[in-house]
Peptidase MA superfamily protein (Actinoplanes nipponensis), 410 residues
Amino acid sequence: MIDPAGTTAAPPRRTDRWLALFGVLALLCGGVFAVSMARNRALAGREQHALRIIRTALDRQGAALLHGDRGGWLRDVDPALSADLLRLYANLRGLQVSGWLPRARQVRTGPRWSADVQIRVCFSTPACPRTPETYVPAGDVISARTEWLISGDRAVLTAFDQTGADGSVPWKRAALTFATGRRVVVAAVEELKETQPQAWLPAAERAAQVADRYAVTRPRPGRYVVFLAGEQHWREAVGEDRDAAAFVDRTSKETAFAIIDATALGADPDDERLLRHEFGHIATLLGTLGNRDEWAVEGLAEYIAYAGTPVRSYELVDDARWHVEHRNWTGRLDLEWSAEPAERFGYYAMAFLAMRCLGETYGEPRMLGFFTRVVREGAAPAEAAEAALGVGWEQVESTCRPKILAWLKP
């Protein structure tokens, strides 16, 4: 190529062409990246907005529940869900709901917004705190996959599919019927026509008055909740163990249910001792989860069940005699527990006698102080005896051994 000055110009280098091409591609890619970033930011903003609106709807629903506002409970619910949500509402109100702590996560867009929801509820307690364990799946945590129709600043619940097991009290899905007293709520599955909560209420109220005297927490438990289990629910809760008549399910530190095998042969609505035993567990263990000192736990519950009655009227006294004779009992009070059916009642009986001796020898306040240190605080009996009873553990056992043997003489 010849320029106007008559000199020969060098042709453009190929690298210049590539640089120009790369520049164009970079501009195009940068534009696509910027558009993608903008879309991601927009989606994140929409998700945050949806999460905020869903949380607001859940909080508003909980406030309506706690105030007994049935219409407010359904305000943000699709009419197609009304029957299921009203059943849940009735159960929560029947169980004296006192706390509603919702959490929404994993909010995703689609044809409708979806979210994983967990709601911790409390029953008849003045405190329902958020803790690290609040949303650990348990009997008082509702877990559900939900869908929502969001329009502006309103979210309407269109799907509420509960996940996880019901627990020992099937209040999350089944319809329950209730009888409510001053200190007790008795519940049963509505379809269990042969079991009427009202029939169990008088004995339960009397049992609650006794259990209240031994409450070691302040404030004392709210209403004691009894669930009358039919054969199916009992089997789901404990398996095939038909020797046990009842147990307490501590679903959290604030919530406990007394579960009664209500359709078993011999189930008696007037069995105040059985109810005292279970309420005794609630009155002395509420605020804790888990314990290993079964001799003290079961012994105190039996003590409460038979408070004010002579030892000789205790129905397991023959089982205690068998244990002393066949297990070569040496006077140890804090026996290693055994749940073997053949030995179970003997251990219950020996635990009762141990706590009865502590109560009669050192007085109930000191006995309860000993129990608190051993069961609720994890102290060894030797340490707890010095602090609560004022004597060494060896002296306690040497004092109780002859008393227990005297009680067991035919």
